[in-house]
Design a protein that fits this description.
about 300 residues, Porin, about 5% helix, single chain, 17 strands, 12-stranded antiparallel β-barrel, mainly beta, 4-stranded antiparallel sheet, elongated
Length: about 300
């Protein structure tokens, strides 16, 4: 009984993870040892996309339904709390627009690139079992967590080298990340910085080689917990740089900003539900302006 509030609080950190978006509140929240979290997410994205003029695609739009299965397992690394995340996304996407001035559309469905992530909290609560962690949180209403992680996206999603639009990227993506969360009472503030490092896609569209400079990203979240283990968050994120180079010719350089609203609440003793809205806005001539609505059902056992 002492662990029940903790379980509900922890499982609700599970985030909607539509693979084309990246904004994640409660990223560094401590998890109890000997727990497993499984989440089933759904996201619907629609909006407009601006391509490089060389591609000759105009007035392009996207509608996408994305599903995601995620597994999270906390474990002890020395005396530190660590966790392993596995994400498997599946998408059904529809693009339409004008290709060389002629209306055209294309559909894709299949798995996108899966992601594996290892995280370690270097400052904050040590690795504890549920009862110990619950007692720590009760005794320490004010505490800070600092963590680091490395995520790797594997190029095994659906990809066709004769198609411009694909669900997979046919390249590895390495993402080192560092962040912190400061909690005081029912409030938390979180700040996370990331770098996306891309390997080359040597089998890009039209027998080309695509390189991409690193993308630097930052996201911040203000989180409030309410009665009955309900919580809400207001989030803001941005990403910049990441210029593409195709056959040694510099192309687009993208910069975008994202805002999100999230709410999570328990539905059963060890289950929770989360709703999220994400708005992504490009700050350059190339990129996308999209709206995403998502939901996640999570189970802890």
């Amino acid at each position: 009984m002492h662990c029940r509030p903790l379980y509900i609080w922890i499982l609700l950190l599970f985030v909607t993870k539509v693979y084309t978006q990246d904004i994640e509140p409660r990223r560094w929240t401590p998890l109890p040892l000997k727990s497993n979290i499984v989440g089933f997410g759904y996201g619907y994205t629609e909006g407009h996309i601006a391509f490089d003029p060389v591609v000759e695609i105009e007035n392009a739009g996207i509608k996408q339904n994305a599903l995601a299965l995620q597994y999270v397992r906390p474990f002890k690394l020395g005396k530190k709390l660590a966790r392993l995340d596995v994400l498997i996304p599946y998408a059904i996407a529809h693009w339409d627009g004008l290709l060389n001035g002629i209306p055209a559309s294309v559909n894709r469905s299949g798995f996108a690139d899966p992601r594996l992530r290892l995280s370690v909290n270097i400052i904050g609560p040590s690795a504890m079992e549920p009862k110990e962690l619950h007692e720590f949180l009760v005794a320490h209403p004010v505490f800070t967590v600092i963590g680091v992680s490395l995520a790797v996206s594997f190029p095994i999603g659906e990809y066709y080298n004769d198609k411009l639009l694909n669900l997979g990227q046919n390249r590895f993506i390495f993402r080192p990340q560092a962040g912190f969360t400061h909690t005081w009472g029912n409030w938390s503030y979180e700040l996370t910085g990331s770098v996306f490092i891309y390997t080359n896609n040597n089998d890009f569209f039209n027998a080309s080689v695509r390189k991409q400079d690193p993308v630097f990203a930052m996201q911040t979240h203000l989180i409030r917990r309410f009665n009955n283990n309900i919580w809400g968050s207001l989030s803001l994120g941005t990403g910049l740089a990441g210029q593409s180079i195709i056959n040694n010719q510099p192309k687009d350089e993208q910069e975008n900003i994202m805002g999100a609203l999230s709410i999570g609440f328990p539905i059963l003793k060890q289950q929770g539900f989360k709703l999220v809205y994400i708005r992504s806005q490009t700050l350059t001539d190339v990129g996308g302006d999209t709206n995403t609505f998502g939901a996640v059902w999570s189970i802890i056992f």
